[in-house]
Amino acid sequence: MNQRKLAFSIGWGYYLVITLLLYIPIVLLIVFSFNDSTLLAFPLKGFTLKWYQQLWEDTELLRALYNSLVVGILSSLVATAIGTFAAIGVTRFHFIGKDFFLTVASLPLVVPYVVLGVAMLLLFRFLGIELSLWTVGIGHVVINIPYVLLIVAARLAGFDKRIEEAAMDLGANYWQTLWRVTLPICMPALLASFLSSLTTSFDEFALTFFLTGTDNTLPIYLYSQLRFPTRVPLVITLAAVIILVTLVIVLLQEWLRHLDQPKRRKGIEIT
Predict the structure, then answer these.
(1) Distances (CA, A) of 124 to 14, 137, 158, 211
(2) Whole-prediction pTM value?
(3) Which residue has the higher pLDDT, 58 or 63?
(4) Greatest Cα pair distance in the chain
(5) CB atoms within 10 A of CB 238
(6) CB neighbour list of residue 55: distance below 8 Å, 6 or more residues apart
(7) Contact, 148 vs 197, CB < 8 A?
(8) pLDDT tens digits, residue range 165-209?
(9) Where are the domains of the chain?
(10) Domain 60-259 is of which CATH architecture?
């Protein structure tokens, strides 16, 4: 019993240390966003909201924010559509080369984004394609498809195929069943996939750095502003806003994922 208590205490201690190391920098970031000074040091000089006010007065920043939102929304929609159809093909059909397809589709999960960015840069240069927000969007689609595939495939594997068979027995063809039965049942997973892709796209820096042209996204803009000491408080304030918005999106995504899990009662799975 003492050994179990010791192991439990060590486990909780390890958890608390990791939690503190992860979240203390985030808390400090938010605290300094209200500091009335360009110096990042204690004690704080005073409380101010001027950095938040300046965020809405910086036209270049707002343009970068707009670019990130456009790229994130469009690339997430495309990645969700492609990943969903890929998940349906993997879970509902048997075809030659299925294992190879899964391996190729999962490569962006294990290949460093820096390496992937350089490879895509060379490809676009070879094809004579100018770097722009379109090339950034293509790169974001590539890295988000595996996440969509895994999330949607997990949901498709979690509900009874007999629901689809019953719909087709009642006269619906496969595409009608897919549109009216399968996709509505998977809608929470589709929304979770979209939000996950949007978060990844909005925060992505390494891949975007190699594929962007003259129009910057928000992470690239933040990186460029770190060269100017007087702009550091503004960067910190923007980073604090991004962290809070991202946290809300992640919590919403997790809520949708748990909402989509099949309920279990008395050991029987109900879908």
Answers:
(1) 46, 13, 39, 9
(2) 0.76
(3) 63
(4) 72
(5) 24
(6) 61, 234, 237, 238, 241
(7) yes
(8) 777 767 777 777 778 777 887 888 888 889 889 888 888 888 999
(9) 60-259
(10) Orthogonal Bundle (1.10)
